[in-house]
Structure prediction request, 729 residues.
Amino acid sequence: MKNKSIKKQEIFAIIFLILIISNIFFAMVNVNQVFAVNQTISEDINSIDSSKYPGVKEQIQQLKTKHPNWSFKILYTDIDWNEAIGKEYLGHGSSPKNLVPKTHNSSWICNICGVDKAYDNGSWRCASKSGIEYMMDPRNSINEADIFQFEELTSTGSDVNIVKKMTNGTFLQGREQEITNIANTKGVNAYYIVARLIQEQGKSGSELISGKTGYYNAFNFGASGSTSEQVIANGLAYAKKKGWDTLEKSISGGVDLIANEYIKIGQNTLYFQKFNVTKKSTFAHQYQQNLFAAKTESATLRNTYLDIESYDSKHTFIIPVFKNMPPKACLTPDGNSTATSGADLVKINVTTSLKLRKAPEDSTKVDWLWKNEIVARLGGDNFVLVFHKERREKLIEQLQNIRIHHQWQMKEREFVFGATIGVSNLNGITVPRAIMGRASIAYQAARQKGVGSVVEFSPEIEQEILANQSIVSNFLPALQAKEFVIYYQPKVNVADRTMYGAEALVRWIRNGKMVPPMQFIPQLEREGSVCKLDYYVLESVCAFLKDRQNKGLSVVPISVNYSRRHLEEENLVERTLEIIDRYGVDHHLIEIELTESEDFQNYEIMSEIIDEFKANGIGTSIDDFGTGFSSLNMIKEVDLETIKIDKSFIPLETDYPGKDRDLVMFHSIVQLINELDKKSIAEGVETVEQIEYLKGVGCDIVQGYVFDKPLPQEIFEERLASAHPYENI
Prediction:
């Protein structure tokens, strides 16, 4: 895309979801060479000399401002820029270090070797010097799309659940725990391992891992040659030499090689593995010939982080800089300032795939693309569509209901695909980046609404998204700084006004002000960090109880809210027990409180978890009972000990239309809970009249402002110190 203003026209952009699968071979380059350098690494970004390394500090600062959880290091390579390019631009005619697909624009292809000189499997050509300059210049990749090629690949532990999301639908499905164990043992980022395996083999796998010869080469080590047959033969010969007679051995052996021969010796980013500008084996020992390898693999990592909503979490990046860098970032070979490499922006062949047509007289008719409309792949399952304004509604309708008919074994089958869509118009837009930014913001808002949603950009939505991003990006630092404090709301026995227990409620004190839970809990729910917050609350409660026990002071059972996101964890009960036992707190003093949710109705999983908690002496309850779609099924299928009835079911003391119905309904709910031999808690109780009514219908426990609002710890301790704090209410 040329770096010039977009003409003002009635065009919209959409980012939407569809899936494309690709399969490409890549090869390792390992050339013995000696190159002496004296390098240093600095974490002081502000010390970067902009006169020597123009633009680097400013670009990093922009990313850091937008993503405060990200950390950056600078590798001062001690290598002259022109020398670096010269070393990478070697090997013409025999074994070039950098290849590009033959389908690329000729400006990306070396004019010495020419378009007729084929490499590897015949689909590759030697890269041009200007192409190498563009891809090696770090300033072209210090942006949100490409930054993950600089991510530090060492790891102290990877989450198997994240690995499962990455491997779903690939040849690696079912090997999640195996890959996670291998990566954690070797100290390598498991997400990077999965991304690299998929990059090497495609999602379905290749002949190199078919096992037909009895050997497997998952990472394509040694797999190079002039033809596909040579690539496969050399790769399998390498595997035989290593004894990789199972896929697991191949993966484990490959990770071992990557860890020992790359990551642990300094090539600990995708960039350094592609362009070895580190101090060991400089300009040699490079993993892949594909010029875009680092960029494409980083796109897989980026998309994964976006999908699992951890894009804004803690990441560390190592940025290389060179002596005598050009005053401005290198342009693409065709003189463009914005990269459009094959892996980052792939135009679909609209002539054959989407049937490019002239605009029909009936403008409401959808025949996919009209003239001057564009659809392009951004990476993964993300696409952008540029289209005429008058076609907006019909195109969105078409995208949300894509139907593919397939005949198999004399049976006609129909597959229906949908899309989550963010839309923005071009009004007031002068640069391409702005329209993509707007469409991306709208898309994020659509994702938050749910699969299949459509959201159009507006300044209000932008502010909301930015606020949500701020909450997520500031969460972990706030957690570490202990900005989250615990309040306690007492639960009171109806019969004698004694304290039965309390509910732990978290509050965020940010910049001296309290952030209401509704401003951060839903965001953390969507992002997944809410589980970390719940464990933080549990630890705080356990520390509080243990301190009082050690002092010989009275204690009561405390309930801790667990998000429904915990039900996706495999080690939920084990982790909960580990925290409680670490503090030496009696199990019966902790109650886990789940919220009824219409979007999680897997009662088998919930029942297993609840039974495990009960077997270990931990109480369980369900919050907001009656607000979901399946309350009766909940108490039928799940053996909970306590049911908290939502305040919306408690009749008011004043007369109002429908009060008789509410009285019957509430009485029936309490009666049902009692007959099932479970405890009932009425939450949100505000008046003495309501207490008397609740006592009359047999409700056990009350929680609400009539007794106490959520209390800071010191005031709650005063209530505990009093034998009968509520006897006069």
User: Anything to note?
Assistant: The first helix runs from residue 56 to 66. DSSP finds 22 helices and 23 strands in the chain. Residues 186 and 260 are 9 Å apart (CA to CA).
